[in-house]
Amino acid sequence: MTASREQWAEWIDTNRTMWDERVPIHAASEFYDQDAFRNGRDEIRDFEAAEVGDVSGKRLLHLQCHMGQDTLSWSRRGAAKVVGLDFSEPAVEVARGLAAEIGLGPDRAEFVVADVYEAASAVPDEDYDIVYTGIGALDWLPDIRRWAETAAQLVAPGGFLYVSEFHPFTHVLGWAGGTVVENDYFNRDAQIGDSPGTYTDFEAPTVNNRSFEREHTLGDIVTAIAAAGLRIDFLHEFDMTLFQRYQELVRHDDGYFRAKEGQPRLPLMFSLKASQPC
């Protein structure tokens, strides 16, 4: 589904306003625990670290980086230079502040305010060894094909795009029990939200609550990346997630939430690596 210029602008501006208001709530939350981060906490999940591999000496671009804690974690893991991009200026200001507090100057960690679709003209370098997009990003995109084209343009020859994300299938089941199909997996319409609060504090008093999301199928995502000229190296699906997405999920010793023992497992997250031919 292609949005008109006016619809596209409304989508981006409305979501930016919503996210801007939530940045200070997120920055002060236990969920992001920025004091622990300042003291060395690594935000990169174990499977991400294993699949991305050694980033020493690499140039890494993080699209839709929010407050930059994942971005800066890649720098701590040895990346030569990380660049984080987000359309929320308050989020980028927090990221810049965190970078300064942990001793990473602009030569090691740089943050840019721009819409993700304008990334190619906004970031400081023409291309990057690794283009990374973290968890909870893709649903906010009105056009997955244009996003894939933008990301592919920024992957250097011999480099790769790495996506780590909640599985689209999780939208199908109802929030309460996770056992009843309530939503259409193939629905391409914009999902309009108007709920106060945020995922770090559902009771937070907020004013700018309207938002737009779109549920891209796994096929949509993979096809868009392949059509942009990248070679799919792997697509992995996982039976765990980062929070209690359904009431039936339980937290395991490794911190991930999974189905209870003896219950059918569901695809809750996925990861994808796609390389740029040399």
Helix content: 25-40%
Mean residue pLDDT: 94
The CATH class assignment is Alpha Beta
Strand content: 15-25%
Total helical elements: 8
* Class from secondary-structure proportions: alpha/beta
Strand tally = 11
The domain count comes to 1
What does the main sheet amount to?
7 strands, mixed
Instruction: Identify the strand order in the major beta sheet.
Output: 3-2-1-4-5-11-8
**Low-pLDDT regions:** none
Order of helices and strands: HHHEHEHEHEHEEEHEEEE
CATH architecture: 3-Layer(aba) Sandwich
Write down the CATH topology. Answer: Rossmann fold
Distance between the termini: 33 Å
- Molecular shape: globular
If you compute it from the alpha carbons, what radius of gyration comes out, rounded to the nearest whole angstrom?
Answer: 18 Å
Q: What name goes with the CATH superfamily?
A: Vaccinia Virus protein VP39
Write up what this structure looks like:
- With 278 residues, the chain is an alpha/beta fold.
- The chain has one domain (5-275): Rossmann fold.
- Helices cover 29% and strands 23% of the residues.
- The protein is built from eight helices and eleven strands.
- The protein has helices spanning 5-27, 34-38, 46-52, 69-76, 89-101, 119-122, 144-153, 218-227, and strands at residues 59-63, 81-86, 109-113, 128-133, 155-166, 191-194, 210-213, 231-238, 249-251, 257-259, 269-275.
- The strands form three sheets. A seven-stranded mixed sheet has the order 3-2-1-4-5-11-8, with helices on both faces. It has a two-stranded antiparallel sheet with strand order 6-7. A two-stranded antiparallel ribbon has the order 9-10.
- Strand 4 (128-133), helix 7 (144-153) and strand 5 form a beta-alpha-beta unit.
- The longest helix is centred in the N-terminal third of the chain and has 23 residues, at 5-27.
- The mean pLDDT is 94.
